[in-house]
Design goal:
There is one protein chain. The chain has a single domain, classed as Alpha-Beta Plaits, CATH 3.30.70. By secondary structure, the chain is an alpha+beta fold. The relative contact order is 0.34. The strands form 2 sheets. Strands 2-5-1-6 form a 4-stranded antiparallel β-sheet, with helices on one face. Strands 3-4 form a two-stranded antiparallel ribbon. 24% of the residues lie in helices and 35% in strands.
């Protein structure tokens, strides 16, 4: 089964170029190696900060765009991994290894196969 690991962080999460970013990316490189060594095919990428987001809504046939994330919140989606696992337990185990789980959260969702 495929699972999306949706990584959420708050304002303490280092952004690209900020102090701590390179160290965090090194942790993610190790996490990626561990996924591969466990035989979990995956893809994933970090996302730029919420200040770079644009939200699109269509209401009454009119397209509305707003700068910023979709909701006012202290946490924001900072990246994702799409992984293949045998079951939810394996996906949860992988999510617990995500470096940002130490200071943010990781939402695990099964992919709805179409």
């Amino acid at each position: 089964m495929r699972y999306m690991l949706i990584i959420h962080n708050d304002e303490t999460h280092p952004l690209p170029g900020a102090p701590g970013w390179d160290e965090l990316m090194a942790d993610y490189a190790e996490f990626s190696k561990e996924l591969a060594s466990r035989g979990h095919p995956f893809t994933g990428d970090p996302l730029q900060g919420p200040d770079m987001a644009t939200t699109v809504r269509v209401r009454g046939g009119e397209t509305l765009t707003v700068d910023g994330p979709f909701a006012e919140t202290k946490e924001w989606m900072s990246g994702y991994y799409l992984i293949e696992c045998d079951d939810l337990d394996q996906a949860l185990s992988a999510a617990a290894m995500v470096p940002s789980a130490r200071f943010g959260s990781v939402e695990v969702r099964p992919i709805a196969e179409m």
